[in-house]
Amino acid sequence: MSYPWRDGNRVHLLINGEAYFPSLFESIGQARTEVLLETFIIFEDEVGQQLQHALMAAARRGVRVQIIVDGFGTDLSRDYVARLNEAGVTVHLYDPRPRLLGMRTNLFRRMHRKIVVVDGQVAFVGGINYGEDHLAERGGMAKQDYAVKLQGPVVADIRQASLALLQQAGATAPEPPAQADGVSARLVLRDNERARTAIEVQYLQAIRSAQRRLVIANAYFFPGYRLLRELRNAARRGVRVQLILQGLPDMPLVSLLSRLLYDYLLREGVQIHEYCQRPLHGKVALVDEQWATVGSSNLDPLSLSLNLEANVLIRDGAFNQHLYAHLQELAQEQCTAVSRKLSRRGYWWRAPLIFLGFHFLRHFPRFVGWLPAHSPRLKSLFARPRARRGADRTSA
């Protein structure tokens, strides 16, 4: 689902957890009426504990706090949920499914959005989950990632989208906000009902409009055939097309699939850089000097054809230039440029895989339709209090 462009916004780029978490926790700390939070993953590490304390403190001030976590991505302990419940926080689990032989069965059609709305005035959208693995200062396999903080009319659309997912009281559409001068922004959601290709369509339109430069930094790059073809066509008409992809993958299979596509793109002039400092988890892109996007959607089959995703589109020269300067620094100082000679090593054995991969991508949306479909649901989590000793134990 794509909302209208809204003018009069303020947008601030947040790079990695070092920028994102303090800004978010500060906003939650200033909340007076409502906090809505959606995420794929919450870990019960230091970051997860800080999030828990911030939400609990807000609820105890009388703020309405509701969070949605994915039933596959997040597995919270009973004690963690109980502490949130006791403070007044409502926790919803998206599409919980029974386990089979101890393994989770809800792999597909996940709630992959990362959204926070505070008091209907401030919103955060991006790809950052709640865990120490998003703190670059920790080193190791910490992820490189992005989010944006938004203020202005677009926040009403983000709030409406979050309320609609909650499927509870208050999920009414607010009045369209007044237009004003400032940054133009637009919320785009992907779902499995009426907006199956919404984010992919926005990428395709942006790529087709590119005249000078196109930069995509994406963690899991295995897009559909149409998107690959438009990247090739952009390079052919003289656009400088740069891809920043994973060189130190957290999921080696994904990196292998991406590399199957390298020669097809490189031979048309697309520049490919592999980020090798740590796993790349970002999902950002920019076109020319105005258009940019930040969000949760990867360019892979799960994000483009199965998951619930949320991206923000931004039209602003200053934001575009800020993101462009950062990505150029990343490409030049922390990435390895991929040459066509390097990409063709072992081509003899990869050629059949490339052939099969391209035909798989061409027909993937039809393949997805064969997967079992169901109506996802939200389950509110309420941890049962422990029984106390003595008379209290028998009083039930």
SS class: alpha+beta
Fourth CATH level, the homologous superfamily: Endonuclease Chain A
* Helical content (DSSP H or I, runs of 4+): 25-40%
Total individual domains: 1
Mean pLDDT: 85
Which keywords apply here?
single chain; 396 residues; alpha+beta; Endonuclease, Chain A; 16-stranded mixed β-sheet; two-stranded antiparallel ribbon; 18 strands; 36% helix; disordered C terminus
Can you give a write-up of this model?
Strand 5 and strand 6 (103-104) form a beta hairpin. Residues 168-179 and 385-396 have low confidence and may be disordered. The chain is globular. Helix 1 (16-29) packs parallel to helix 2 (46-60), helix 2 (46-60) packs parallel to helix 3 (78-87) and helix 5 (198-209) runs parallel beside helix 6 (225-236). The protein is α+β, with helices and mostly antiparallel strands. The protein has a single domain (6-378), classed as Endonuclease Chain A (Endonuclease, Chain A, 2-Layer Sandwich). Strands 17-13-12-11-14-15-16-10-1-9-8-7-2-3-4-18 form a 16-stranded mixed beta sheet, sandwiched between helices. A two-stranded antiparallel ribbon has the order 5-6. The chain has helices at residues 16-29, 46-60, 78-87, 154-166, 198-209, 225-236, 252-259, 262-266, 301-305, 317-333, 340-343, 347-368, 391-394, and strands at residues 6-15, 34-39, 64-70, 90-94, 99-100, 103-104, 115-118, 122-126, 146-151, 183-190, 213-218, 240-246, 271-275, 283-287, 291-295, 309-315, 335-337, 378-381.
